[in-house]
Amino acid sequence: NPKAADAYWCRGIVLEEKGQSDKAIADFNKAIELNPKFAPAYHDRGLAYGRKGEMDKAMADFDKAIELNPKFADAYYSRGVAHDMKANGKKADLDRAIEDYTAAIRINPNHTNAYCSRGVAYEQKGDHDRAIADFTSAIRLDPGFVQAYINRAVAYKKKGDEAKSKADFDKADKLHKAQTAPKQAPKKAPARKPAADRKKTPRCLLA
């Protein structure tokens, strides 16, 4: 029953966002039992496993989501993050992460997190120029992306370009202050974004 599968999936998302990963996984399991071809349920179960540190199970779910839907950009991105987390400086896993981030970008050229995370992977390999290019793409897509400015600042610093590094650190500081400043409560509460619009995966961190 696809509608029942959707209901379990949606409840699993809510539980996961509350930090109740085990209960979320149980709901994703039920959604998959009802609809074995439900790619988003595999993907979100993979995210829940990943947050529990069960990376092999997470990777298997991302693989299955991609098998079911080869155009699933977020599944490639999430698998890239999993490779990144396993890498610990190992070139092979970093290369796999870069391949998956690239696949996500090919499917969705506006995937800001994929650009930023690929930039982090390039920076870990010592490829400062490619890293800077990817952080710049992330900033172009999201001019308020504080972490992308910080990451680019770090890359510029490692290249020895102190002026550009300082400019990016200053910009990141200014944006952070603006984004965290107390705001007046709106007269009318804004409508909640639909579940499909939420950010399911953490943004990239270099510094």
Which structural class should the secondary elements be placed in? Answer: mainly alpha
Q: How much helicity do the residues have? A: over 70%
The total beta strand count reads 0
Give the H and E element order: HHHHHHHHHH
Overall 3D shape: globular
Mean pLDDT: 89
Content of β-strand:
under 5%
Spatial gap, N to C terminus: 46 Å
Please state the CA-atom Rg, rounded to the nearest Å.
19 Å
- Describe the main β-sheet briefly: none
**Stretches where pLDDT falls below 50 for ≥5 residues?**
189-203
Number of helices: 10
Please outline the helices and strands.
Elements: H1 2-17, H2 21-34, H3 39-51, H4 55-68, H5 73-87, H6 91-107, H7 112-124, H8 128-141, H9 146-159, H10 162-180
Description:
- With 207 residues, the chain is mainly α.
- Helix content is 72%, strand content 0%.
- The chain contains ten helices and no strands.
- The chain has helices at 2-17, 21-34, 39-51, 55-68, 73-87, 91-107, 112-124, 128-141, 146-159, 162-180.
- α2 packs antiparallel against α3 (39-51), α5 packs parallel to α7 and α7 (112-124) packs antiparallel against α8.
- The protein is globular.
- The N and C termini lie far apart (46 Å).
Give the tags.
207 residues; mainly alpha; 10 helices
Brief summary of the model shown:
With 207 residues, the chain is mainly α. Helices cover 72% and strands 0% of the residues. Helix 5 (73-87) runs parallel beside helix 7.
